[in-house]
Amino acid sequence: MGEVRKKLPIGIDGFEKLRTNDFYYVDKTLFIKELLQNWGEVNLFTRPRRFGKSLNMSMLKAFFEIGSDPELFAGLKIVQEKELCEEYMGKFPVISISLKSVDGLKYEAAAAALRTVIGNEAGRFRFLRESAKLDEGDKNSYKQLVNVEIKSDARYAMSDAALIDSLKTLSQLLEKHYGKKVILLIDEYDVPLDKAFQGGYYDEMVNLMRNLLGNALKTNDSLYFAVLTGCLRISKESIFTGLNNMNVMTISDPYFCDSFGFTEDEVTELLNDYGLSGFHDTVRDWYDGYRFGGTSVYCPWDVIKYTQILLKDKEAEPENYWANTSGNDLICRLLKKANQNTRNEVEQLLNSGTITKTIRQELTYKDVEDSIDNIWSVLYSTGYLTCRRKLSGKQMELALPNREVRELFIELVKNWFEETTRADSARINRFCAAFPAGDTDTIQKMLGDYLWDSISVRDTAVRTNMKENFYHGMLLGLLRSQGSWLVRSNAVTGEGYSDISIQTPERTGIVIELKYANDGKLETACMEALKQIGRKKYAEGLKRCGTKKIMKYGIAFCEKECMVVMA
Questions:
Q1: 374 lies in the same domain as 444
Q2: Which residue among 34, 62, 352, 519 has the highest number of C-beta atoms inside a 10 angstrom radius?
């Protein structure tokens, strides 16, 4: 246990703010040493979101920038590298921008957002207006970067030509002023392209980014080195044309493996410091499993969020804190394009298996739509899949990294099933009509057909109640297609909560209890379901609502098999 527990840095990605406000910090400062030992002129790090990219970029700025406070690094590992600190700490002009806010429904709005990001960063160097080292032409160039046009919707009035040259121009001005070459940091470099692809102005944004980055990284004599971060490695043909000096470190490469994300030792120390070591197995099960190079890594955002919640409530269940909408869209796209082979592969992943895929790490956003194989590659790059084993060439054995991602996949498969089955209304109506008719043969046969067409969850590592919830969600989606039925899920209908209860306009009441038969004994599971309906008096609530007839169904599942028994 630490002496006094520090505040947990939820959503704090500024190194200076974190260090000056006494937040808990997992020391990643040796990233600086490794970078200086392995740097190219342009260094690109691709890692999934929420793995500490922005915090590391903020740390680089705090370390290298002229005038920064060396006390921010007091007690951290990098200060033991005395010669390195003397040579590099506080010795360089630094331009640092994040492109995560460069977004807009149209190209013009996104370009204006880019002007704002660069204009705000240029505004940090107001001293250039008065610098004795700059001539009038230089000062006019600077004014073009920071001038605000009152009448314009855009906050900054820099022309297209000034915008394209902006990072190079600012580099040249800073080198003239300081007599030192510049370090350029660009965080989330790929976000503008992702947003542009979604917004339908991809080609225009590619052109802008190609020119901006080409000037800043390829023909910039004032550049000492640059560091870029993002989720995807965008192909050279797309925005890095002719850039031969780029040093790319993806999650597959054996460099910087422990610089992003938390290692096993770091998680052990954090949980010990907060008196939560007893939760380590749960944290590992849910949030570990990523592999960067040869190192096993936890998602830091998840670990910190769950630690924060456990400090308030030791009974709190782990949750999905990491997965986001854009990643979910990719999984949904995969399922929509899926043929039977792909569905089988998703099923293997859900059930703790692996699949073998050729991974393309250099893609354009347009490539993602071209083939299912490219979607697998993006899911790997963005952290939804992890490499269990490298095979020959670019082939990898892929798996879901942990419980968090698996449960997300299960939820999305359930939603996909509902969407695809809704398209065949005649088939669904026939299936639903069999319930008030007491036609167990039709229910069982059609439910079996639906299971065959879908993706099943059978892995023993998935909790039985999670598997029951999965099949419960699928059945519920089918039954709710009947707009005139009152379909309740987990409603109090007696002395407990029945899985599904239905009232039809003809005042027929239907009670359904589901079981997952891990041992494959479907009939036994069905009989247990019916006993539970009787024991807990699930039908009583429906009787009180004035139903004329009550029907009770026990339904058991095991993988793609099912059995339906009526009381």
A1: no
A2: 62
Do 182 and 114 share a structural domain?
yes
CA-to-CA distance for 372 and 378, rounded, in angstroms? 10
Question: 227 φ, ψ to 5°?
Answer: -125, 130
Inter-residue contact 56 to 28 (CB < 8 Å): yes
Measure the CA–CA gap between 110 and 82, rounded to whole angstroms: 44
Strands of 355-358's sheet in order across: 355-358, 395-399, 386-390
How many other C-beta atoms can be found within 10 angstroms of the C-beta atom of residue 34? Answer: 15
514 part of a folded domain = yes
- At residue 151, the pLDDT reads 64
pLDDT at 2: 42
Of 353, 375, 405, the last residue of a domain is: 405
Alpha-carbon distances of 439 from 6, 66, 403, 424, 432, rounded to whole Å = 63, 79, 38, 20, 10
Place of tokens 């207006």: 129
Rounded distance, CA 179 to CA 514, Å?
A: 74
Residue 449 lies in a domain: yes
What pLDDT is stored for residue 418 in this prediction? 79
* HEC secondary structure over 124-170: HHHHHHCCCCCCHHHHHHHHHHHCCCCCCCCCCCCCHHHHHHHHHHH
DSSP-derived pairing of the beta strands 508-516 and 395-399: unpaired
Write out the H or E segment, with its range, that includes residue 551.
Answer: strand 549-558
**Lookup result for tokens 């942990």:** 402
Same domain, 281 and 336: no
CATH number of the domain where residue 128 is located: 3.40.50
Residue ranges for the chain with pLDDT beneath 50: 1-2
Give me the domain span that covers residue 307.
Answer: 264-312
The pair of structure tokens assigned to 429 is 């109506």
The total number of structural domains that make up the chain: 4
pTM for the whole thing?
0.87
For the chain, helix (H) and strand (E) counts, in that order, are: 23, 17
